[in-house]
């Protein structure tokens, strides 16, 4: 085999086009074509690069014919090994300034700071896949004010939310607002309230529904008259604990 034949064979075994090999070596496609046709030969530095790229000796490339088994340079060009895929690693960065013994801010995979951003973030303000803080944003969030796919907090907003005041597609709280809401006082498409519920389908001590209402003390379908409002207010005042007066006030906004 000539040099050109060996080069063509090695290139094809490694799945390179002439254009790709030319880009790697920094030459034109026509140069590769001439080398493979044995019209011209590459310069020494290009020969060395070819031997490294195709994992074979210079003797193999330059000597015509096939080397005898066991002789120097007998190894033929081998396909290049598959590239090693490295996963991206988080590089942690943080402020040199501190507050309450914590960095003012930090970004990384697992960080704690006043303002923390990361896969697992803990701070006064936390943003991440799993966030814990006074104000937290994340797929899974826990905080005084919590916003996330799954959130838990005093004020909780998310697809699935649990809190004193919970707002979400599925919410559970002393006052719950959502497509499906359950708790003390609730408003939603489907509302289940211990004390009161309002929505399309309402179930509770006091129930006001558009399609269905089931209440142990009071139930009503459709809009409330002024007299009905007064009745509902009196029932709420009599049955809702004073600690939930804020929830009672919110509930009355949805009547």
Short note summarizing the structure:
By secondary structure, the protein is an alpha+beta fold. Helices cover 25% and strands 48% of the residues.
SSE arrangement:
Blueprint: H1 3-13, H2 18-25, H3 29-36, H4 44-54, H5 58-62, E1 93-94, E2 98-99, E3 102-103, E4 105-221, H6 226-239, H7 245-252
Antiparallel strand pairs: 1-4, 2-3
What can you tell me about this protein's structure?
By secondary structure, the protein is an alpha+beta fold. Helix content is 25%, strand content 48%. It has helices spanning 3-13, 18-25, 29-36, 44-54, 58-62, 226-239, 245-252, and strands spanning 93-94, 98-99, 102-103, 105-221. The strands form two sheets. The chain has a two-stranded antiparallel sheet. Strands 2-3 form a two-stranded antiparallel ribbon. A hairpin with a 2-residue loop joins β2 and β3 (102-103). α2 crosses α3 (29-36). The longest helix has 14 residues, at 226-239. The radius of gyration is 36 Å and the shape is elongated.
Kindly, what is the distance between the CA atoms of the first and last residues, rounded to a whole number of angstroms?
91 Å
Q: What topology, given as strand order, has the largest sheet?
A: 1-4
Helix content: 25-40%
User: How many strand units?
Assistant: 4
Q: What overall geometry do the principal axes of the alpha carbons give?
A: elongated
**Using only CA atoms, what is the Rg?**
36 Å
Sketch the topology as an H/E string, one letter per element: HHHHHEEEEHH
- Give the biggest beta sheet: 2 strands, antiparallel
> For the residues shown, what is the average pLDDT?
87
Oligomer: single chain
What is the tally of helical segments? 7
Low-confidence stretches: 67-75, 82-88
Question: Structural class given helices, strands, pairing?
Answer: alpha+beta
Binned strand content: over 45%
